Amino acid sequence: MQYFQVFVLFMTLCITNLNAIMFHLSPNQKKCLRDEIHKDVLVTGEYELSDAPGQKTHLTVTDSKEHILYSKEGASKGKFAFTTEEYDMFEICFETKMPGGGHGVDREISLILKHGVEAKSYEDIAKADKLKPLEVELRKLEDMSQSIVDDFAYMRAREEEMRDTNESTHTRVMYFSIFSMCCLFGLATWQVLYLRRYFKAKKLIE
């Protein structure tokens, strides 16, 4: 049992996707964070903003096609979650506004992002499915294994795509080189024939 727990802990550390970020945002400023996510991956976020009298902060989460995944006007503290439909890049933007254009203090923003297995609540799954602790660990291990398999499959697909692109580029470069050599050979032949006729017309050669 002890070896099993150590193995589960090791697997968790290998594939945990958790990003904790803290930064300051000045009044009437906007800051965005971007991240790439694979297909069918659960993403959860938890944010908290420090108090700033008179300021309002607008939070939006969008994908690369500018679809709004989450939006909150007057954000101060909360959570959001979404599942990606395809491999995409999503963007999280915080924008503070100070009515009247006045000056105020910077807001401290804390953001915790979780992806994949780390984003799942296994306590809720255990309660819903009435799972024992060992069954919960096995479920988590199964999800982590599937995540690793998906990552390897994605890397393999990317490798095949890059290889195809490389081979296609190599073929095009080869054909372009052959075409360039033919053009140069044709141009050189034309120059020789032209100069020969010119010199014959000037009676410099027979």
TrEMBL record:
Annotated signal peptide: 1-20
Membrane-spanning intervals of the chain: 173-195
Subcellular localization, as worded in the UniProt entry: Membrane
Domain GOLD residue range list: 30-140
Keywords on record: Membrane, Signal, Transmembrane, Transmembrane helix
Cellular component GO terms, alphabetical: membrane
InterPro entries cross-referenced by the UniProt entry: Emp24-like (IPR015720), GOLD_dom (IPR009038)
Membrane topology: Single-pass type I membrane protein
Family indicated by similarity: Belongs to the EMP24/GP25L family.
Name of this chain's protein: GOLD domain-containing protein
Organism (species): Lottia gigantea
